[in-house]
Amino acid sequence: MSSAIDAGSVFDDLFAAGSGRFVRDDGNVEHLAVHQWAGDTDDVDRHLFTDQCAGPTLDIGCGPGRLVGELVNLKIPALGIDVSHEAIRRTRVRGALALRLDVFDEVPGAGHWSHALLADGNIGIGGHPVRLLNRVRELLGPEGTVLAEVAPRGTGVIRDQRRLWVNGRYSSPFSWAVVGLDAIEQVAEEAGLTVTATRSMNGRHTVTLART
User: Fold this and answer.
1) Which of 69, 103, 179, 200 is the 20 to 30 Å CA partner of 48?
2) How far apart are CA 127 and CA 117, in angstroms?
3) 64 with 124: CB under 8 angstroms?
């Protein structure tokens, strides 16, 4: 029989197993791109994220560290944060600096980061994109930018409860959100940010957000 475990622990299992899925509260299933997250950066990652970083960068929900690892290789100061022990371990194996923190914890360098990354759907962390972006804005320096991956146009904003399914076990439910290209301007505005650039490549989309 499967048993419910907390989301932080099941993310450890997710990265160790290399596969898993989100199960939404309506029963729909989303298979997760764990191999992509755990692999090396590709041309899409570079175009959408690392090529846009020119100063100290905070990777929020860094996972196994492919982006923060690439930034270190480029000699750009960077820090990854994640709630998963396994994610932090793998990021450090890449030679990158990573701490086991929630974005709402006390984050080193708060108010001074040049860039903050919300890759791989991490704009959904906590299920409240406006609250999350308000927090990220607090972490940035005065001229700092957010690079956020968003869903295709027509998605709008979806907020729901999800569970992770890994190795025959469900996590406890947690809140998540999805923000589409058609909705990000309004979400950003409510967080005191504005969209200054949009990039798309191979079916993935990012926006650059700066203070209004």
Assistant:
1) 103
2) 17
3) no
Residue 27 binned pLDDT confidence (cut-offs 50, 70, 90): confident
Label the pairing between strands 193-201 and 204-211. antiparallel
The whole domain housing 110 covers 4-211
CATH code, domain with 129: 3.40.50.150
Number of domains in the chain: 1
Torsions phi, psi for 133 (to 5 deg): -65, -35
Q: For residues 36-54, give the mean pLDDT.
A: 94
Which helix H or strand E contains 15, and what residues bound it?
helix 7-17
Q: Label residue 191 exposed, middle or buried (CB < 10 Å: 0-12, 13-18, 19+).
A: buried
What rounded mean pLDDT belongs to the chain? 92
Nearest to 149 by CA among 125, 175, 113, 173: 125
Q: Which H/E stretch holds residue 71?
A: helix 66-73
Structure tokens at 28: 């729909």
Q: What is the pLDDT of residue 6?
A: 55
Please provide the DSSP assignment of 87-118 as one string: HHHHHHHTT--EEE--TTS--TTTT-EEEEEE
Residue found by looking up tokens 């929630």 in the block: 102
pLDDT band at 7 (very low <50, low <70, confident <90, very high): low
Q: What's the CA gap between 115 and 8, in Å, rounded? A: 25
